[in-house]
Amino acid sequence: MISVLVADDHPVVRDGLCTMLELEPDIRVVGRASDGAEAVEQARRTHPDVILLDVQMPVMDGIEALRKIRARDPEARVIVLTTYRNEDYIFPSLKAGALGYLLKDATREELAGAIRAVANGESLLDPQLVSAAAEHMPSITRRERDVLRLMADGKNNAEIAVLLFLSENTVKTHVSNILEKLGCKDRAAAVLLAWRRHII
Predict the structure, then answer these.
(1) Which of 161, 153, 162, 158 is nearest to 188 (CA)?
(2) pLDDT tens, 110-123?
(3) Tell me, what DSSP letter sits at residue 8?
């Protein structure tokens, strides 16, 4: 059985998630939290195999809760489950140690599959954030990899240009090439795919 802690401040969402998960024969909900601080405490008390963590919660937001959970238990396996698909939430979640980033409109099958994958130590990214066409990873040059790493650090084109001693136009070209090669629509999806495929 895979034990799961569900943390979401909306009771209807939280209860709905728990109800869905309890239909799975190999998943057991061992805790429910309504804010980030409660999630940290429940994680300490229940030691779940996987934690589903919302980003926007009262008292303590999900990203800060994730940092505290991982600081206490570096092996904690966390999936950020949210409605937000922009890099303001994606990058900090990954940096804080999330193994997965899943959107709340995921189906029950997708959610259960994500939990099983993360329980096995795999990382995952919601397929909506990555082009389905990018199943075969094209070759990424060393310079493009450097740019990707700095993109993952949240640097903009001007900052990357300074750090890599390049012109801003050259950086823009690298970013365009990266997006095209990875089949991604934006920087966030490109970084996440690169992270998922262990390019960075």
Answers:
(1) 153
(2) 999 999 999 998 87
(3) -
